[in-house]
Design goal:
Elements (H helix, E strand, L loop, with lengths): L11 E4 L4 E3 L7 E6 L6 H19 L2 E7 L3 H11 L4 E4 L4 H5 L3 E6 L2 E6 L2 E5 L5 E6 L6 H8 L2
Parallel strand pairs: 3-4, 4-5
Antiparallel strand pairs: 1-2, 1-5, 3-8, 6-7, 8-9
Length: 151
Protein backbone atom coordinates (compact mmCIF):
# COMPACT_ATOMS: atom_id res chain seq x y z
CA UNK A 1 0.00 0.00 0.00
CA UNK A 2 1.06 3.54 -0.61
CA UNK A 3 1.54 5.73 2.42
CA UNK A 4 -1.16 8.03 3.77
CA UNK A 5 -0.16 11.67 3.34
CA UNK A 6 1.72 11.10 0.09
CA UNK A 7 0.83 12.34 -3.37
CA UNK A 8 -1.31 9.83 -5.26
CA UNK A 9 0.44 8.79 -8.48
CA UNK A 10 -1.26 10.45 -11.45
CA UNK A 11 -2.26 8.26 -14.36
CA UNK A 12 -4.31 8.15 -17.53
CA UNK A 13 -6.33 5.04 -18.45
CA UNK A 14 -9.25 4.38 -20.77
CA UNK A 15 -12.73 4.22 -19.28
CA UNK A 16 -15.57 1.84 -20.19
CA UNK A 17 -16.30 4.01 -23.26
CA UNK A 18 -12.69 4.06 -24.46
CA UNK A 19 -12.10 7.67 -23.35
CA UNK A 20 -8.86 8.60 -21.58
CA UNK A 21 -9.37 9.58 -17.94
CA UNK A 22 -6.65 11.00 -15.68
CA UNK A 23 -6.66 11.16 -11.90
CA UNK A 24 -5.71 14.84 -12.21
CA UNK A 25 -9.08 15.44 -13.95
CA UNK A 26 -10.65 15.14 -10.50
CA UNK A 27 -8.60 17.77 -8.64
CA UNK A 28 -10.92 19.69 -6.35
CA UNK A 29 -12.96 16.54 -5.60
CA UNK A 30 -12.39 13.64 -3.28
CA UNK A 31 -11.81 10.37 -5.12
CA UNK A 32 -12.64 6.86 -3.95
CA UNK A 33 -10.19 4.82 -6.05
CA UNK A 34 -10.91 1.15 -5.72
CA UNK A 35 -9.03 -1.76 -7.24
CA UNK A 36 -10.80 -5.05 -7.85
CA UNK A 37 -9.80 -8.39 -9.40
CA UNK A 38 -12.32 -9.04 -12.19
CA UNK A 39 -15.59 -7.90 -13.76
CA UNK A 40 -18.65 -10.13 -13.32
CA UNK A 41 -17.30 -12.23 -10.45
CA UNK A 42 -19.45 -12.58 -7.31
CA UNK A 43 -17.39 -10.40 -4.93
CA UNK A 44 -16.56 -7.75 -7.49
CA UNK A 45 -20.18 -7.53 -8.61
CA UNK A 46 -21.39 -7.10 -5.00
CA UNK A 47 -18.81 -4.38 -4.38
CA UNK A 48 -19.58 -2.51 -7.61
CA UNK A 49 -23.35 -2.68 -7.07
CA UNK A 50 -22.97 -1.43 -3.48
CA UNK A 51 -20.85 1.50 -4.69
CA UNK A 52 -23.54 2.14 -7.32
CA UNK A 53 -26.34 2.18 -4.72
CA UNK A 54 -24.42 4.64 -2.54
CA UNK A 55 -23.15 6.76 -5.44
CA UNK A 56 -25.63 9.64 -4.93
CA UNK A 57 -24.42 9.92 -1.32
CA UNK A 58 -20.78 10.00 -2.46
CA UNK A 59 -21.66 12.84 -4.84
CA UNK A 60 -23.44 14.73 -2.04
CA UNK A 61 -20.20 14.57 -0.04
CA UNK A 62 -18.18 15.92 -2.98
CA UNK A 63 -16.60 12.59 -3.90
CA UNK A 64 -16.49 10.48 -7.02
CA UNK A 65 -15.92 6.73 -7.34
CA UNK A 66 -13.51 5.12 -9.79
CA UNK A 67 -13.02 1.38 -10.15
CA UNK A 68 -9.89 -0.11 -11.73
CA UNK A 69 -9.15 -3.65 -12.84
CA UNK A 70 -7.04 -5.27 -15.54
CA UNK A 71 -10.17 -6.12 -17.56
CA UNK A 72 -10.58 -4.72 -21.06
CA UNK A 73 -12.59 -1.63 -21.99
CA UNK A 74 -15.26 -3.85 -23.61
CA UNK A 75 -15.50 -6.03 -20.48
CA UNK A 76 -15.98 -2.90 -18.37
CA UNK A 77 -18.67 -1.63 -20.74
CA UNK A 78 -20.65 -4.88 -20.48
CA UNK A 79 -20.20 -4.93 -16.68
CA UNK A 80 -21.35 -1.30 -16.38
CA UNK A 81 -24.39 -1.83 -18.59
CA UNK A 82 -25.40 -5.14 -17.00
CA UNK A 83 -25.53 -3.61 -13.50
CA UNK A 84 -26.27 0.04 -14.46
CA UNK A 85 -23.15 1.27 -12.67
CA UNK A 86 -23.15 5.10 -12.48
CA UNK A 87 -19.41 5.57 -11.97
CA UNK A 88 -16.23 5.28 -14.04
CA UNK A 89 -14.48 1.96 -14.59
CA UNK A 90 -10.90 2.14 -15.86
CA UNK A 91 -9.06 -0.55 -17.78
CA UNK A 92 -5.45 -1.32 -16.80
CA UNK A 93 -4.47 -4.43 -18.81
CA UNK A 94 -0.76 -3.48 -18.66
CA UNK A 95 -0.95 -3.28 -14.82
CA UNK A 96 0.76 0.14 -14.81
CA UNK A 97 -1.58 1.78 -12.28
CA UNK A 98 -2.30 -1.45 -10.40
CA UNK A 99 1.43 -1.81 -9.74
CA UNK A 100 1.96 1.92 -9.07
CA UNK A 101 -0.64 1.68 -6.30
CA UNK A 102 0.97 -1.50 -4.94
CA UNK A 103 -2.11 -3.74 -5.19
CA UNK A 104 -0.59 -6.50 -7.42
CA UNK A 105 0.48 -9.27 -5.04
CA UNK A 106 0.86 -12.97 -4.64
CA UNK A 107 -2.44 -14.60 -3.70
CA UNK A 108 -3.33 -18.10 -2.64
CA UNK A 109 -6.58 -19.62 -3.84
CA UNK A 110 -7.54 -23.26 -3.58
CA UNK A 111 -3.97 -24.10 -2.57
CA UNK A 112 -2.54 -22.49 -5.69
CA UNK A 113 -0.32 -19.40 -5.64
CA UNK A 114 -0.92 -16.79 -8.34
CA UNK A 115 -0.36 -13.09 -8.86
CA UNK A 116 -3.41 -10.87 -8.82
CA UNK A 117 -5.12 -7.68 -7.71
CA UNK A 118 -5.70 -7.50 -3.97
CA UNK A 119 -9.04 -5.75 -3.41
CA UNK A 120 -7.96 -2.35 -2.08
CA UNK A 121 -9.37 1.17 -1.81
CA UNK A 122 -7.72 4.57 -1.58
CA UNK A 123 -9.33 7.81 -0.47
CA UNK A 124 -7.66 10.70 -2.28
CA UNK A 125 -8.34 14.28 -1.20
CA UNK A 126 -9.06 17.34 -3.33
CA UNK A 127 -5.32 18.06 -3.70
CA UNK A 128 -4.41 14.56 -4.86
CA UNK A 129 -3.06 13.42 -1.49
CA UNK A 130 -3.83 9.92 -0.18
CA UNK A 131 -5.85 10.52 2.98
CA UNK A 132 -6.65 6.88 3.71
CA UNK A 133 -5.93 3.42 2.33
CA UNK A 134 -7.55 0.04 2.90
CA UNK A 135 -6.01 -3.28 1.84
CA UNK A 136 -7.79 -6.65 1.50
CA UNK A 137 -11.22 -5.05 1.92
CA UNK A 138 -14.48 -6.97 2.13
CA UNK A 139 -16.54 -6.35 -1.03
CA UNK A 140 -19.90 -5.93 0.72
CA UNK A 141 -18.58 -3.68 3.52
CA UNK A 142 -16.10 -1.49 1.63
CA UNK A 143 -18.56 0.96 -0.03
CA UNK A 144 -20.29 1.91 3.26
CA UNK A 145 -16.88 2.02 4.97
CA UNK A 146 -15.70 4.54 2.39
CA UNK A 147 -18.87 6.60 2.74
CA UNK A 148 -18.22 6.78 6.50
CA UNK A 149 -14.67 8.00 5.79
CA UNK A 150 -16.16 11.06 4.08
CA UNK A 151 -18.22 12.09 7.10
Amino acid sequence: MLEIGTQAPDFTLNDQDGNPVSLSDFRGKKVILYFYPKDNTPGCTKQACAFGELYPQFLEKGATVIGISKDTVSSHKKFQEKYTLPFTLLSDPELQVIQAYDVWHEKKMYGKTTMGVVRSTYLIDENGIISNAFFKVKPTENPSQMLNELS
